[in-house]
Amino acid sequence: MPIEWPDLLLFLSASLMLNLTPGNDMMFVLGQSLRGGTRSGIAASLGIATGSLVHLALVAMGLAVVLARNPAVFEAIRYAGAAYLVYIAIQTLRSGPAILRPAAGDASAFKAWRDGAVVNILNPKIIVFFFAFLPPFVKPDNGHPLLQLVIFGLLFNIGGTLINFAVAAFAARLAGIFSGNVKIARAFAVLSSALFLVLAARMLFDRKA
């Protein structure tokens, strides 16, 4: 086995604490779940997981270094991600009370997955985070450094996805309780839209990697 158990347990503990800390991904899933129910929340979680796999692949190929050393590319991707979040916020606000109506099946789920993947891929801070967080756990003495990196990345991604599933179920259940109230439905639309706008602002103005 390329990873020793003490190292694995240390990584899992650190990953759990990070994944339980409310962040952009969790807020996005919360907004999607309030907007479209459990199906949309789970689809958004899987979309985020898909985006994270793309970032992991880029880290494995060493492109994180290139991105970190090219501020113009980094900024362009960041602005594109923020713009997409603003677009989602506008669409959510325009839906009004319809936000708590039953989701439109597979089409709605695909849209939530797509939005999750796009927003995650267009957040360059994630690839920089992976590049900073994963390598310290890799020990050359254990052999197969690239394999270790991939295993750690997959474990982190799986843990975050499972936690996002729980967030999606909770938020969807909360929305379902109030689905018959037009005023509350409109409030949920405003709340979801606000969440997406907050995410856009964080992507633009939070300078932490």
Low-pLDDT stretches are none
The tally of domains stands at 1
**What count of helical segments does DSSP give?**
8
Task: Characterize the overall form.
Answer: globular
Query: What helical percentage do the residues reach?
Result: over 70%
Radius of gyration equals 18 Å
Proportion of β residues?
under 5%
Query: Describe the biggest sheet?
Result: none
Give the number of DSSP strands: 0
Structural class: mainly alpha
Tell me the series of helices and strands, N- to C-terminal.
Answer: HHHHHHHH
Q: What separation lies between the terminal Cα atoms? A: 32 Å
Mean pLDDT: 85
Q: What can you see in these coordinates?
A:
It is globular and about 60 Å long. It has 209 residues and is mostly helical. The chain has one domain (30-205). The chain has helices at residues 5-20, 24-60, 63-68, 71-95, 105-121, 124-133, 145-177, 182-205. The chain is 80% helix and 0% strand. The two termini are 32 Å apart. The chain contains eight helices and no strands.
Which short descriptors sum up this protein?
single chain; 209 residues; mainly alpha; 80% helix; 0% strand; globular
How is this fold's topology laid out?
Layout: H1 5-20, H2 24-60, H3 63-68, H4 71-95, H5 105-121, H6 124-133, H7 145-177, H8 182-205
Concise account of the structure shown:
The chain has 8 helices and no strands.
